[in-house]
Amino acid sequence: MQLNRLVIFYKTIGDPTRLRIMKMLSEGPLHGQAIAGKLGLTPATITHHLKRLREVNAVYERRDGNTIYFYLNGSVIKHYAKSLINLAEQDEVKKDMTDVMAERQKVIENFFTTDGRLKNIPAQRKKKLIVLEHMLKGLQKGKKYEEKELNEYIKKFHDDYATIRREFIINNYMYRENGIYELNPEEMWTKIE
Amino acid sequence: MQLNRLVIFYKTIGDPTRLRIMKMLSEGPLHGQAIAGKLGLTPATITHHLKRLREVNAVYERRDGNTIYFYLNGSVIKHYAKSLINLAEQDEVKKDMTDVMAERQKVIENFFTTDGRLKNIPAQRKKKLIVLEHMLKGLQKGKKYEEKELNEYIKKFHDDYATIRREFIINNYMYRENGIYELNPEEMWTKIE
DNA sequence: CACCTAATTAGATATTTATCTAATTTCGGT
DNA sequence: ACCGAAATTAGATAAATATCTAATTAGGTG
After folding, report:
1. Which of A121, A111, A107, A102 is nearest to A159 (CA)?
2. Distance from the A148 Cα atom to the nearest Cα atom in chain B, whole angstroms
3. Strand D proximity list, CB < 7 Å
4. Cβ atoms within 10 Å, residue B121
């Protein structure tokens, strides 16, 4: 459920230590020991908090040797913030959709073959999102997908399923938990400006 | 401290019952009994959550007879959300300030007499904020003000101290706790577009 | 292989807090 | 001045969780 995701995210954020970590990471990646040192806490404690932050995709990590660098995941955080802003705005804004739709259609025609395969992943962010959303249309809301199942689905469009699957997560279209994937509610998707 | 405010706000938001209340209030004001009914919880429990939400100014209330209607305080919520977005954006954007300053100066000259009194409170939001910020300059960061003390300060500018004091809170320039007022860090202020 | 450092896991403790029931307060109407 | 409805307060209980120490796992390097 959508509300539930927000709850978990904000509960995670609403902790002094975790917010301090996020603040530190906003100035650049750090590894666990460094964080522990700066905060005067035990590595075990940092592991605990990073686990929490990872669970909501507020951070991601990159391994270098046996030290792991943690990065702030700005886009996910921004999306949660935006869904808070939506909540705070009681008025419903309806925009004119016709032009937007025409533009989307053109992008889809350019990037997909007539038999529905993706020619290549657009480099331009805006077009990439349109393409991703097009592929997402075949997935069911609320359904839980095994990673393998999702890979198979994506392969119908393009061989590089790993990249595309990652894009689904990065742009907040999907949510991963214990290797199980699920569509996010649309309010949480990365929006095209 | 700034981080601390954020922590308290997000901890408050990060609770299923409170987020559900906020969601309900986003569709219009409600009184306590109504909220309790819809959520299947005790009035005492609702009081508890509303107290929390009030502490961070996420809601405000209006009394009608002896029933109290609660409203969502959209602007405060949006400001916290924006400060999250700031955190998520690692790049620092510097803008050209010279034009902006000239405009502010003009507004201040128009709305204040030569001996520094406020002629009247601007109706236009943008100008109002400039005027409010001008008055705020005489307050000290980190200092805690009694309500009476703050009233006296505002009276130096204008007799209607109650309205102005309220504007300080609504626009997130100041923070109130147990009748004590304090300046918010500037990152949290209402920003002029 | 032996060793070192980083990270994680497991288990224990102490603090926080959401919720309830019961008592109390607040306000308007009769 | 009294009564009823709405809200708050007080106190109790149960659940969640931040942190620590100690043990374990992972990855590299001499």
Report:
1. A121
2. 32
3. A 11, 15-17, 40-42, 44-45, 48-49, 52, 63, 65-66; B 31-33, 43-44, 46-48, 50-51, 66-68
4. 15
What is the topology classification, in CATH, of domain B92-188? Arc Repressor Mutant, subunit A (1.10.10)
Gyration radius (Cα) of chain B, Å = 19
Distances (CA, A) of A38 to A21, A31, A43: 10, 11, 11
**Residues from chain B contacting residue A28 (CB–CB below 8 Å):** 90
Q: State pLDDT tens for residues B150-182.
A: 887 888 778 888 888 888 887 778 887 767 788
- Write out pLDDT tens, residues A22-69: 999 998 889 999 999 999 999 999 999 999 999 999 999 988 878 899
Nucleotides, chain C, CB distance < 7 Å: 5-11, 17-23, 26-29
Specify the pLDDT at position A91: 47
Interchain pair A11, B14: CB under 8 A: yes
Q: Can A3-75 and A92-188 be said to share one CATH topology?
A: yes
Tell me which DSSP letter residue B156 carries.
Answer: T
The answer to whether the pTM exceeds 0.90 is no
Which of A1-10, A132-141, A154-163, B180-189 has the weakest average pLDDT?
B180-189
Q: In chain B, where are the structural domains located?
A: 3-75, 92-188
3-state secondary structure chain A: CHHHHHHHHHHHHCCHHHHHHHHHHCCCCEEHHHHHHHHCCCHHHHHHHHHHHHHCCCEEEEEECCEEEEEECHHHHHHHHHHHHHHHCCCCCCCCCHHHHHHHHHHHHHHECCCCCECCCCCCHHHHHHHHHHHHCCCCCCCEEEHHHHHHHHHCCCCCHHHHHHHHHHCCCEEEECCEEEECCHHHCCCCC
Domain B3-75 fold is Arc Repressor Mutant, subunit A (1.10.10)
